[in-house]
Amino acid sequence: MSKPTTPIRALLPTYLTRTTRIIAHLNHLLAHTSTLDTTLLTLSYTLHLLAALLFHPPKSIPISHQLSRLTTSLSPLAALFDDYRNLLRLSGLLGIYSWAADLWTNSPGDGVMRGIRWAQVGALVMYQALENAVVLAERGVIGWGAGRRERVARWSLRAWCLFVGLELGRLGVEGRRMVAEERRRVTAGGKGEEVKGKGEVEGGMERTESEVVGTGMSLVDEKGELQLSEERAGDERVRKRWAKWRTEVGINAAYAPMTVHYSLKNGPLSDGVIAALGCVVAWLTFGQAWRESA
């Protein structure tokens, strides 16, 4: 007996509600400069990757003439997104100043982390200031020739390369410390289990006495439930912290070869590899922004 099919009209409200929710979420991302840059980054590198695949398709995949012509449209569209992102980042020094001011008032107590953070601030200032100068020079605001713009852009990207290297170092230190914290937590939890086991034996005697006098164990039960709830909340925080750490490692590990490539006069990576690495960065960044804005 065949299973009855649900009419499209009955499913339409569900799909419309889901689509409306997704569009509202996307609109929220586009309403903020940082998440707008993330969205444009995702679109740009996705288009760059498609253009690279269409321009140099694998031999096993036949590409029609119509699709090959699409390459001429994808590359300028990706370049348009890149230009828009450059213009958005003209105000990036303001964000770096805010980060530095927050770092000054809420500086990490640890000397290693504090040193890494302030080195990152210096690298970002150099990167953003030089990139802004190149963007303005390309539009005739600053009278630099093509050769000078290229040299300054390369130094800007070297500063970005330094920032990424420092970020990987920071993540390495943070990862080791999270592992140490997890070991201490597990050790403390094991000791707690021993104490709990002993308490259960003693508690059995107390429970017998309480039954005689007619008192309940509700207070003990509530305390146990509260402790279990706190443990679960702690486990969820640890899980989210590790998930964020892994995402940031993936983003910066993909960024690293790209920044090295662009820091050199003739980088070793092909356009396809750059686009693929950029897609890894973009989709990980976009996914993180999507989850954090939910």
Question: How many beta-strand elements?
Answer: 0
In percent, how much strand structure appears in the residues? under 5%
Radius of gyration: 28 Å
User: H/E order of the elements?
Assistant: HHHHHHHH
Shape: globular
How far apart lie the N and C ends? 43 Å
Number of helices: 8
What is the structure about, briefly put?
With 294 residues, the chain is mainly alpha-helical. The protein has 8 helices and no strands.
Q: How would you describe this structure to a colleague?
A:
This protein has 294 residues and is an all-alpha fold. It is 84% helix and 0% strand.
Please specify the SSE layout and strand pairing:
Layout: H1 8-30, H2 33-55, H3 65-88, H4 92-105, H5 111-138, H6 146-213, H7 218-263, H8 271-292
Helix pairs in contact: 2-3, 2-8, 4-5, 5-6, 6-7, 7-8
Question: What are the main properties of this structure?
Answer:
294 residues, mainly alpha, 8 helices, 84% helix
